[in-house]
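Dear colleagues,

As part of the handover before I leave the project, I'm documenting each prediction I ran so the next person doesn't have to rerun anything. This entry is a single chain, and its sequence is reproduced below.
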Amino acid sequence: MPPATAKRPAITALVTGASSGIGAALAGLMAADGVDLVMTARHGPEMEAMAAQWRQRHGVAVTVIPLDLARPGAARELTAEIERRGLAIDYLVNNAGFGTWGHFSATPVIDSEELLRLNVEALTTLTGLLLPGIIERRGKIMNVASTAAFQPGPHMAVYYASKAYVLHFSEALAFELKGTGVTVTTFCPGATETGFQERARMQKAAMLHLVKMPGSEEVARAAWSAMRAGRGVVVPGLLNWLLSRGVRFAPRRMVSWMSAMVAGPSRN
């Protein structure tokens, strides 16, 4: 009779923005690897359908908490609900975010406020509130930034600035957590085939016509691999990586001009 093997302790991951795109694909990969999930996003039915499938297929526990993290105070509500349900978070994936396209002067201020609450405030609050437990369990954090984090972004000024915050905050946090056993991965994908472009109303942006965008499954695989390995700043794709490095050596005015050409209206 073969010797009994010790059962691996359960790992629970909180994934925000988990109803579609990279977040949904990433949650699916985690479930396939036996990670229990807490999923949150605005759209509950989509998450419930995926949760039922993963419970049956992979035998994992999946908790769905529909919530709009762009609403004031929502991040604190989420952590309170997680605590009320007796759940302990080992892995945190701050994936939720959105962008707005167009000149800042023509963008309703309320849209910019919601963007900053989701992309910056919710990410920071969730990380801060869940961090003590993650340190105790020597867990992992992944904050999803973007290649937008490496330069200013005319036509998407607030979005690019929000992702620069995510990049710099995450790098500083990773430094501070050295020696705790907690890793912080800053994942910086380029344009990806998700619902992001539709919500940002950027269908006319030049970047969507310059190169073929990878699908969310492909990008999610790179993200999950990086998080498991505890890597730091990760830019998937050779072209994305080269562009993120190249802007360091170009004059700042040229960087803004190049960014405006890519994010601005297509000339086709």
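The two ends are 69 Å apart (CA to CA). The domain at 12-263 is CATH 3.40.50.720 (Rossmann fold).

All the best with the project,
I.
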